[in-house]
Design goal:
180 residues, alpha/beta, 6-stranded parallel β-sheet, 5-stranded parallel β-sheet, 18 strands
Length: 180
Amino acid sequence: MSGDRLMRIHSAEFRAMAERVLRATELTSRLNVLPFEDDAGKADLFERILGSPLPAGVTIYPPFFTDHGLRLDLAERVFINQNCTFLDYAGIRLGERVMIGPKATFITVGHPVDPQERRGWLSGGPIDVAENVWIGAGATILPGVSIGRDAVVAAGAVVADDVPAASLVTGGKASVHRRW
């Protein structure tokens, strides 16, 4: 995770973010119970969640979850399978023809590792996914990551570092990196 501090908890910015989270949660809850064939209702709710209409050729299968929505930038012909989560406060960009498997998670905000700062600050960074990337089922993309064009992220992978273009990344094993 990027060590960049985004905001202090209990600030005016944090309160505004928390209000947006409540609104986005309410909208996605409504979206996720619409009948499958209610295309007009889904289009209206996606526009309210994202702040603009879905680009041409974008397919999103509910249930769909976001905590902010207004900082999720989708290019044309993006495919998002069911049960995906986008915690997009710091921004997520998905390039053209990106395909995302079910239960993938994108997280742009977290807390600092330092125990003294953990409860007082949010940290993180934007996620940038280039064109024609395939992200497998259950993959987790962490704050500040860029994924290069034509890359593949294997199912269940946890991506904490940038992914070069035209490469395959795998793995989800946790390991101890430091102690305090």
